[in-house]
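Page 37, top half.
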Amino acid sequence: MAMDPIDNDYELLTLLELNDITFYYKDGYWVKFEAWRVRPSKHVPHGIRYSLTLHDGNNTRIIGYDNAHHSLPKSKNYKARKETWDHVHKKRKVHSYEFDSASQLIEDFWNTVYEYT
């Protein structure tokens, strides 16, 4: 029986292990990790759907790294849409995100959290 390529990717396995983990800060902020396997596609080529979020004490999402949906509308000057759905929500703005690896995703997320907390 063939092995799933994810079974040998320890970075993706680490991200999967963080699924449903929540970290709470003294000042009311909290961080939630969600990550689960999906069938690889052109939108989610690595086969992991994820959502890493930072919320304030009022439960308002401040930061969100995810790939749950397409993120950016087509530009008036450029008709192509990004194939992968990886993106970042920073307050009310959405920015494209280039998924390099699961460990880089986690590092980028924590670096953004530290900017806001």
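Page 37, bottom half:
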Amino acid sequence: MSYLVPIIVVFLNCVIGAVAALFLKKGSKKGLISRNILTGIFLYGISAIIFISALKYAPVSILYPVTSATYIWSFIFAKKYFNEKITKQKIIGLCLIILGIILISLV
């Protein structure tokens, strides 16, 4: 059975998780309770609901490793919105994550 659709759903769902992290980062400067913190928590909740729904259609042993794509999106967004530094080690790490997702998805 092909798990391509749930894998794609989870991969794209990782964008929501990465955006949630951006809101939490932005809100962290204003204290524990702020609009950005609450937005981040809300988005993490939405992301969890989508992930749980995807679990009906594919094994957790395949889908959970795909959630590491959140690191890819977070890296991209952190560079774009917070001008975080890109290092060779980070690039190597991202390449390994991508390779791992591809290997897990081929099962």
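Margin note: The chain has one domain: 4-105.
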